[in-house]
Design a protein that fits this description.
351 residues; six-stranded parallel β-sheet; binds nicotinamide-adenine-dinucleotide
């Protein structure tokens, strides 16, 4: 029997609705309360999702029927809110990115460690079916020695999107297309290919009135000797599936929006007895694409359920604060290299 967990949401904007929907099907989990800097937003959200609206973070943290807090505020405030919640003894589900600077990420990880609470940073696509399958293939050795990894996010965001909130498109609170949109597939690339050791990048602000980049490109080296590329953009109309390609000596797997759309393995891989499940398959149909929102919620459900199970079982969650930091480190390295015009070597100290 799962233990009861009461969850509080801080920041009731776009992603908070996903958290509310994601919590609903988890046995033993209940959305207890929400709060927002703008009280009307919290009240509207609470009415819609059948929970209490608290007037502020302190009031939400004071509730002893809440043991887990979902941090859904703008990215550059994740550590500030998360540290306070950790000090109040609450376990944490922090939206991506962990924060926008490594110092802030370190503050949050240290606060979680000191308080002895569990911390997960959202990277829900690790729970998408195609990524789960890719991970199994890599772990089984089906792809052999990894050689080349590519992650691509070619999306479109209008100027109205950036104008919809004062924090959007700012370096201090948001970051550019790579920090906000591309980071999901940066995390998946790093998770698949292993530690990134060197980054050479450029970025540009091409078609939005914002201070941040709206297109970033990078070439990467991995500790294994593999190499790779990253592209992230919000200027590509009308927007395409997020894509991850992983090639090794055993063959290639291509994932689009969380579904494997191509896989071709060598005879060596067939020797592992995996060939039968690895034949090329058709690209995802329009139905799967139309279901993207539902898939998004179910992967959030899986990650939040994992955090609750980690608390119950006294183990670390599948995706930790340090994982979130390692992915942020790659994003920061892309920005640093783009600014300096020099390759950036990553220490991997916290990876
Ligand atoms: N995992 C995903 O797929 C995904 C998708 C969208 C957004 N996100 C992340 O979720 C976070 C929020 O994004 P969003 O699109 O929901 O933003 P949003 O602007 O729609 O919502 C943020 C809310 O936080 C409130 N807020 C700001 N500061 C606060 C504070 N100190 N205390 C309480 N409330 C505060 C704002 O008033 C606003 O209502 C970002 O970090 C973003 O990267 C993740």
């Amino acid at each position: 029997m799962a233990r009861e967990h009461g969850i509080g949401i801080v920041g009731t904007g776009v992603i908070a609705a996903t958290h509310a929907a994601a919590i609903e099907p988890i046995p033993g989990a209940r959305l207890v309360a929400a709060t927002d800097l703008v009280p009307e937003r919290a009240h509207k959200f609470a009415a819609k999702h059948d929970c209490a609206a608290e007037p502020g973070l302190d009031a939400l943290l004071a509730r002893d029927d809440i043991d887990v807090v979902s941090v859904c505020v703008p990215s550059g405030l994740h550590a500030e809110v998360g540290v306070q919640a950790a000090r109040a003894g609450k376990h944490l589900v922090v939206e991506k990115p962990i924060d926008v600077t490594l110092d802030a990420a370190d503050r949050l990880i240290a606060a979680a460690d000191e308080a002895g609470i569990a911390l997960t940073v959202i990277s829900q696509h690790r729970f998408d079916p195609g990524l789960v399958e890719l991970r199994q293939l890599i772990d089984a050795g089906a792809l052999g020695r990894l050689l080349l990894g590519e992650a691509s996010t070619k999306w479109f965001r209008s100027q109205a999107y950036y104008d919809s909130g004062p924090w959007r498109g700012t370096w201090a609170l948001d970051g550019g297309s790579l920090m906000n949109q591309g980071i999901h597939y940066v995390d998946l690339l790093r998770w698949s290919m292993g530690q990134v050791t060197e980054v050479s990048a450029i970025y540009a602000t091409q078609n939005h009135e914002v201070e941040v980049e709206d297109t970033a490109l990078a070439v990467l080296r991995f500790a294994s000797g593999a190499v790779g590329t990253l592209v992230s953009s919000t200027v590509v109309y009308p927007g395409f599936a997020q894509r991850l390609e992983v090639s090794g000596t055993g063959g290639t797997v291509v994932v689009e929006d969380g579904t494997i759309v191509h896989q071709g393995l060598t005879e060596d891989a067939a020797g592992l007895g995996l060939r039968g499940t690895l034949l090329p398959r058709p690209a995802a149909d329009a139905g799967a694409a139309a279901n993207a929102a539902a898939l998004g919620v179910s992967s959030h459900t899986a990650q939040i359920a994992d955090l609750l199970a980690a608390v119950d079982e006294g183990r670390p969650p599948a995706i930790t604060g340090r994982d979130g930091r390692a992915t942020l480190e790659v994003v920061r390295a892309v920005y640093e290299s783009a600014r300096s015009g020099q390759p950036v070597v990553l220490t991997g100290a916290a990876q």
